[in-house]
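Researcher: Let's run the pair from yesterday's discussion. Sequence first, then tokens, for each.
Model: Starting with the first of the pair.
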Amino acid sequence: MLTPEGKISRYFFGANFSANELREGIRVAGKNENGSLIQRLALICYHYNPITGKYGRLVMSILRVSGVLTAVALVLFVAFTARSAAPNKR
């Protein structure tokens, strides 16, 4: 859904959605609003600049931080599991 100014207000996933969902989307877009918090977070993923062929800095920063946190979590999990599985040496 686009606002009268041409900004994305809401994105519907898939091809099938209810009449109530569509009605609410039209109402919110008509008021130049962006919908709920979750929908605004989902719209961050669509900040793509077709001229440069790149996503916005915010999107790339979120992806980088998420990747680093995932890697750290995996390393900590493996270290904790290996330490727990090691036999006690007394």
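Model: Moving on to the second of the pair.
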Amino acid sequence: MKKAGHYLLAATLAVSLAACGGKKEPESAPVVTVDVAPVLLSKIQRTVRADGLLYPLRQAAIVPKVSAPVKRWNVQRGARVRAGQLLVELENQDLAGAATESRAALTQAEATFETTSKATVPEELQKAELDAKAAQDAVNAQQSVFENRQRLFREGAVAQKDVNDAQVSLSQARAQFETARKRLDDLRSFAQEQTLKAAAAQRDAARGRNESAQAQYSYSRLTSPIDGVVTDLPFYPGETGPAGAAVVTVMDTSRVIARTHVSQADAAQITVGNDARLVGADGVPIAAKVTQVSSALDGANTTVEVWAEAGNKDGTLRPGSSLRVEIVAKTVPNALVIPQQAVMTSATGGTFAILIDKENKPHLRKIAVGIRDAGKAQVSDGLSSGDRVATTGAYELFKLDAEVLEKTKVQIAPAKEEPEEPEES
């Protein structure tokens, strides 16, 4: 039975006895035992809590681009590796041979280009210049012969036939000169350029074939793209993995990312850079920071994905494990704080507290509540620092009528003693 009911019943009995005996005794005020707590000025935080899953900072599941059996492992599971380190080799004798052949073909094409650009083309141009000069000299000589024979013919010293022969020789010399000059002009204008282009094209084609062969060979030598730890080597030497299967997996676990999903309302209060804590099975919180708040909803459950990143140099956090993510959405450094137990909510949604004055009289006080977290509540209006509010027993007082509450006195329960720690022997 409720304490208030006891007190009202006792008062009723006292009135009845007075009526029967002709005496009236004064009505005693009800007394209720409660626990009290002071209104303190302290820091309070709005913390969003949700379950999360751990992922490595970076991960590389290396899938080979060529299909070949595993030749050898150069590392073991759990080994720490550096970016660029050789991890696994596939069978590659045919690829190595093709790479050697293509490299030799490239060397030959480069030599041909150098010879063409520095020796062949200059020699041809020089020869054409000499041929053109010789042809010009021949034309000049035949021109002199033709003119001399014309003069001698006019003097009657030679026959017409000699003049005609000299003219034919001059025409032939001129034709040879035109041919030599055209070749020289062609070499100077475009033939030299085209010859160099052809040699350069052969060199570039050989270079492309060599790069392709070298790339095919490199695909058989799997190196790590990141610093990290080898977490999986699923195939033994001699085995050929199926198409698309990773031959080795490397994770960078120096830092981990906890991915969690929160409601839209909670996500609206979270920003990148907020402090967070990751709490694993051991219950020890690890400091983290919010690094990403998704701008889109998860289609499956209309929540928002949030990432919190934490250091993991000692490797205590293992990717793939689940844990609790606590994100500090808001911090008020100097807030009026009372126990959450002291906050009463009416049927209409109003919030109240039972204020205990210096004379241990209870008063119903309407309050405005802000952040609620970890059993504490922020009071933004209605109380002052140093006030006392009822905690245990407050709800019984809250249910009393205003007139009964005004006559009620409270008895403060003695402080609970903390259990003594056993002495070390």
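Researcher: Give me one sentence on the second I can quote.
Model: The radius of gyration is 50 Å.
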